[in-house]
Design a protein that fits this description.
By secondary structure, the protein is an alpha/beta fold. The chain has one domain. The protein has three helices and 14 strands. Strands 1, 5, 6, 8, 10 and 14 form a six-stranded parallel β-sheet that branches. Strand 2 and strand 3 form a beta hairpin. It is globular, with a radius of gyration of 17 Å.
């Protein structure tokens, strides 16, 4: 299953890492300091590993949407995971070094800032030959070990502030 260096490949691993890369670069363009990636190998494929940054489409379909929701001086470390699940979540002056998951009601406005530092979600390599591991993880080449995270849910309309 080794992919020769320099050859193009397409897989679950490279596809997922491409999403993290794209979202990290969008945030970087919007003014967030996002740490540079490192190269790692999963199932014989070398990929760039960026911070795991994901958001629901309603948070940001375009760069303009994202730019409106990012302000101040923010940073995201390489080990970080950021998941945004809500229409009106605003990132302002946050320092993220770990895992942060924010979910909000569509009528809620949430300003997220401060310093979030925790153990986060480590990436653990998975051997594609190990049949004791679920197939979807073997295909992917890794799983997350969710050691620690800050998770907040805002289920009611209103204005909220998450200052970590």
């Amino acid at each position: 299953m080794k992919v020769p260096k320099g050859n193009p490949y397409h897989s679950a691993t490279s596809g997922e890492m491409a999403v993290y890369r794209a979202n990290s670069l969008i945030l970087r363009k919007a003014g967030v300091q996002v740490e540079d990636p490192v190269k790692q190998e999963f199932n014989g494929q070398e990929v760039e590993v960026w911070p795991r940054v994901v958001w629901k489409p309603k948070w940001g379909l375009t760069y303009a949407d994202v730019k409106k929701k990012v302000a101040g001086s923010s940073s995201i470390s390489l080990k970080s995971t950021l998941a945004l699940k809500g229409r009106n979540i605003f990132i302002e002056n946050i320092s993220l070094d770990g895992a942060l998951v924010v979910e909000s009601h569509d009528e809620a406005e949430v300003k997220v800032g401060g310093s979030v530092k925790n153990k986060g979600w480590a990436i653990e390599k998975v051997d594609y030959k190990d049949t004791s591991v679920p197939e979807e993880l073997r295909i992917r080449g890794f799983r997350f070990q969710q050691a620690e995270q800050l998770e907040k849910q805002y289920t009611e309309p209103g204005k909220f502030e998450l200052k970590a």
